[in-house]
Amino acid sequence: MTIEDCKIVELPRFLDARGNLSFAEQQKHIPFEIKRTYWIYDVPGGEARGGHAFKENQEFIVALSGAFDVVVDDGVQKKTFLLNRSYFGLYVPVGLWRTMVNFSTNSFALEFGSEHYDKEDYIRNYEEFLKMKTNGEI
Ligand code: TYD
Questions:
Q1: For the whole model, what pTM was predicted?
Q2: What is the C-alpha separation between 112 and 74, in angstroms, rounded?
């Protein structure tokens, strides 16, 4: 996988005087079956989250509130995706190093995963990530 395999997905929007509504369905807007959801909030200014890669877990990330950058790295190239609208999601396939930075005040990141939590699925060492990428292991 390379950064070219990441994609921004525009989610449906129902704009209404009563307030707006968006939604996402698995295998449709989110291109996998969802096994896990988690969210990140109350991030202090200047903090970074998620410096790691997954061997099996695919992800779909939405900025439900506020804004942040997702920096995706395939070992050769890096790309920064700004998420700042609740109707855009970022699909991140397996085997990419990704970090979330520049969280605005009160930002709220909702993440969907294709796998249950498994700490063995995480690659948290960047050198190890590069080695696995070079060897074609991920
Ligand atoms: P961590 O992976 O450090 O968060 P991030 O990648 O956003 O920087 O996760 C923080 C803690 O939460 C860590 O001890 C593992 C735990 N955790 C779970 O138990 N289940 C989960 O689904 C997630 C995402 C994390």
A1: 0.97
A2: 20
Under a CB-based contact definition with an 8 Å cutoff, are residues 62 and 24 in contact? yes
For the Cβ of 101 lying below 6 angstroms from any atom of ligand 1, the answer is no
What was the pLDDT predicted at 135? 96
Measured between alpha carbons, how far is 84 from 64 in angstroms, rounded to an integer? 8
Of residues 125, 83, 114, the one with CA closest to residue 101: 83
CB 90 within 8 A of CB 6: yes
What was the pLDDT predicted at 84? 98
Just list the catalytic residues: 52
**β-strand pairing of 36-41 with 108-113:** antiparallel
Handedness of CA 62, 29, 59, 26 (dihedral sign): positive
Q: How many helices (H) and strands (E) does the chain have?
A: 1, 12
Q: Is 117 in the pocket of ligand 1 (CB under 6 A)?
A: yes
